[in-house]
């Protein structure tokens, strides 16, 4: 039983660490894309415009389709976020239930640091790049 708990805790901590690592790498890539125009999602749109020799009307329509899809993905994220948060909080409570008071304090500090890093990544990501649909038609 003790080994199962140890594996479970190890798995959860590894998951948190992997999530932080993936977030850091993703953030780095997003920052690089913001610093180097011509890369990323919108450069692929421009490339598609060129490869398909799209008319201005087609470019506008494509940009609208992609923007509508982006809005739908954002709405889906807003719908699922509360469920995700509940699962995350439940998992944290389950972990706390198997820890000593000293471990709980260390765990809470660890979680607070991870949450702060995630918040900073979100702020940098959302604030780093602001694209308007007109930029998609840069060809």
Describe this protein's structure.
It is a single chain. The protein has 139 residues and is mainly α. Helix content is 86%, strand content 0%. Helix 1 packs parallel to helix 4. It starts with a helix and ends with a helix. The model is unreliable at 33-38 and 128-139 (pLDDT under 50).
Would you report the number of β strands?
A: 0
In what range is the share of β-strand residues?
A: under 5%
- Gyration radius from CA atoms, angstroms: 21 Å
Count every helix, treating DSSP H or I runs of 4 or more residues as helices. Answer: 5
Integer average pLDDT = 77
Form type: elongated
**SSE order in H/E notation?**
HHHHH
First-residue to last-residue Cα separation: 63 Å
Residue runs with pLDDT of under 50 for 5 or more positions: 33-38, 128-139
Q: How is the quaternary structure best described?
A: single chain
What secondary-structure arrangement, pairings included, does this model have?
Blueprint: H1 2-35, H2 41-51, H3 56-97, H4 101-128, H5 133-136
Helix pairs in contact: 1-4
